[in-house]
Amino acid sequence: MTAINDAWEALGGAPGLLPRVSTVVRRDVLDAKLPVRDLARACVGAGALAAAELGARRAGLAEVPAVTVDDGAVAAAFHSERLLRVDGRTPDVFAPLSRFWRTADGWVRTHANYPHHRARLLDALGLPADASAEDVAARLAGRSARETEEAVQGAGGLAVALRTPEEWQAHPQSAEVAARPLVERARLDAAPARVLPPLDPAAAPLLPAAGLRVLDLTRVLAGPVATRTLALLGADVLRVDAPWLPELPDQHADTGFGKRSAALDLTADRDTVEELLGAADVVVTGYRPGALDRYGLAPRALADRHPGLVVAQVSAWGAYGPWGGRRGFDSLVQVATGIAVTEGSAERPGALPAQALDHGTGYLLAAGVLRALTEQSYEGGSRLVRLALARTARWLTDGIRPAPAEGAPYPGPDAWLAGTDSPLGHLRHARPAVAFTGGPTDWERPPVPWGSDPAKWR
Is there a contact between 238 and 276 (Cβ–Cβ < 8 Å)? Predict the structure, then answer.
């Protein structure tokens, strides 16, 4: 069974649709010891097939449009944050304190791209706010990796000790992750079938998510990739952030295509939040599990107040187990799950050639939303779709049988890059990888400055 079969089955898709997918195979794409190319191809292909299926349903087509997955386009999309240029400037993907560090007994990786995470890291290490990378290295050299992990996590920061695949397999969080499906899907109630406005089958492009409203409560990177995909497909995506937690400008530019951006206090602006929820079709959250529950944004609470919603959630470690409430990012999940050892060694850890857990999970999350909308059109019910980077990591390490590394040569990413003028400057960016016959080839609008839109639907 190929990886896309796995993904499509996890999404609840009909096996008979898989022959609609064809692949342009290219050599030397996303090269790694683990089957990263296969994962990336499957996640994008499943997202495109879910989009084509919904488009056919809404347009009354006799056949689901054909899907083409080009390894070159997929590779560019999975490197989108690295390929982005803003007025010719190359963004910094990782801050100076987001890296591997030697400890007294091994390695630890920290994540401190956001100012508040940097502050918590330094506080946990007992260092001043202006501490340098050399100061951090000196402090960590005398501490154990596991001790550092617990101290920093306890302070609300992000640090993970390097583990081998065997050490992760013995960890209780690994057992919890392994017990879940790749895509968790649930029907939350008996809300009536969703009546989706029909699409003109002759319209070009065919936008499967046209007219749908998506409230985007996500942060870097998997969640914004999912909502960027839904925006490509025609959804009105409104990203909402707390006024005191601005997104990193370059990350916002990379994942903001097709969206609008508003700043909103979920407590003080509660009435506005409820107005948005009352007219939303989809709510996507990307904060650590439980972090938004106090605002009434838990899946069942949302379904109780707004029957018929699709609620999609993504987290690092999953909404369960001893690490269920922990913060995390792709780079840290790679370190915990043994991927960094597999791609390097215990003496010199490595990394995947892209943030493939983030990107792959993001496309799967978008696919899960699209499939939930299709299922709702037949069966009704509020829906929950939930993914975790750690579960995607398990699929990569233990579940994918790699396909032969053959195909046409990969000429590099330039063929899959485009230039767009925007309020943020001139952007060089990766073009969409999700492609099906008659579907969109670009986003309707470029990214806008963070928090520059009103908190209301169009």
Answer: yes
Helix (H, G, I), strand (E, B) or coil at 285: strand
Residue 12 burial (C-beta neighbours within 10 Å; 0-12, 13-18, 19+): middle
> For the chain, what is the largest distance between any 2 Cα atoms, rounded to a whole number of angstroms?
67
Per-residue tokens: 152 = 């920093």
DSSP code, position 236: E
pTM for the full predicted model? 0.98
Closest by Cα among 400, 450, 411, 447 to 43: 400
295, HSE (Cβ side, Cα atoms, 13 Å):
21
Structure tokens at 59: 């347009």
pLDDT over 60 at 358, yes or no: yes
Question: Nearest 10 degrees: CA dihedral of 86, 264, 235, 39?
Answer: 60
Between CA 234 and CA 397, with CA 8 as vertex, the angle to 5 degrees is 115
For tokens 């995470």, what's the residue? Answer: 117
Do the Cβ atoms of 207 and 234 come closer than 8 Å? Answer: yes
Main-chain phi, psi angles of 57, to 5 degrees: -60, -45
Query: Taking the mean position of all CA atoms in its chain, how far away is CA 409?
Result: 28
DSSP 390-454: HHHHHIIIII--PPPS-SBPP--GGGGEEEEEETTEEEEEEPP---BTT--SS-SS----TT-S-
Residue type, 339: I
Give the orientation angle of helix 356-379 with respect to helix 3-10, to 10 degrees: 50
What's phi and psi for 151, nearest 5 deg?
Answer: -65, -45
Using alpha carbons, select from 409, 390, 407 the residue that is nearest to residue 399: 390
C-alpha span between 101 and 346 (Å, rounded)? 13
Dihedral angle computed from the Cα positions of residues 322, 326, 330 and 334, in that order, rounded to the nearest 10 degrees: -40
Q: How many CB atoms lie within 10 A of CB 7?
A: 28
Asked, as a colleague might, if the bond just before 19 is cis with ω within 30 of 0, I would say no
Question: If you average pLDDT over residues 353-360, what whole number do you get?
Answer: 98
What does the DSSP 8-state code read for residue 247? P
Tell me, what amino acid is at 365? L
Q: Which residues contact 294 (CB under 8 A, 6 or more apart)?
A: none
Give 287-334 pLDDT, tens digit per residue.
Answer: 999 999 999 999 999 999 999 999 999 999 999 999 999 999 999 999
